[in-house]
Amino acid sequence: MNPSPQIVLIDDNVAWLEVLAEFLRSKGLAPLPVNDAAQGLVLLERRPAPLVLIDLHMPGMDGLEFLRQLRRRRRDVAVLVVSSDDEPHLVAQALALGARGFVSKDVPPRMLLRAVQQTLLQAERAAAPSLRTLTLLLPFYAPRGLLPFKG
């Protein structure tokens, strides 16, 4: 049985955070809610997660600064911006900083779930080494006896 994917949720609106966490939990996911972007960075250092859902506007570190700092530390974490602010320039900035997508907070829950599932799937595919990569690396490792089999 595969464990539920952990998803870090970052939003300063505690009521929204609780509702979102409960919704995702009811769909078989494992949300890790925090109400501060700096806490989110610390959490990701301690507990790797494939996906972060983050709001843009928060006191202290906002969603865009979170993306900047996360990309300096890790590039393997997918980020989905979930915000009520859909200003095109902010969405474009978030995407330029490495967010995989944007979802408005007022979309129906099924659409939010679909975006989360698609982003998780994309992150999983990006993390898996391709057969081509393994084929290219095989000649490098095989002659050095670094593979557990002889061929």
Task: Describe the protein.
The protein has 151 residues and is an alpha/beta fold. The protein has a single domain (6-144), classed as Rossmann fold, CATH 3.40.50. Helix content is 48%, strand content 16%. It contains six helices and five strands. The chain has helices spanning 14-26, 37-46, 63-73, 88-96, 109-127, 131-141; strands spanning 6-10, 30-34, 51-54, 78-83, 101-104. Strands 2-1-3-4-5 form a five-stranded parallel sheet, with helices on both faces. Helix 3 (63-73) links the parallel strand 3 (51-54) and strand 4. Helix 2 (37-46) packs parallel to helix 3 (63-73). The radius of gyration is 18 Å and the shape is globular. Mean pLDDT is 85; it is low at 140-151.
Number of helices: 6
Question: Strands across the major sheet, in which order?
Answer: 2-1-3-4-5
CATH homology group = Response regulator
CATH architecture: 3-Layer(aba) Sandwich
Instruction: Return the domain count.
Output: 1
Name of the level-1 CATH class: Alpha Beta
The CATH topology is Rossmann fold
- The low-confidence parts are 140-151
Instruction: Bin the strand percentage.
Output: 15-25%
Tell me the major beta sheet: 5 strands, parallel
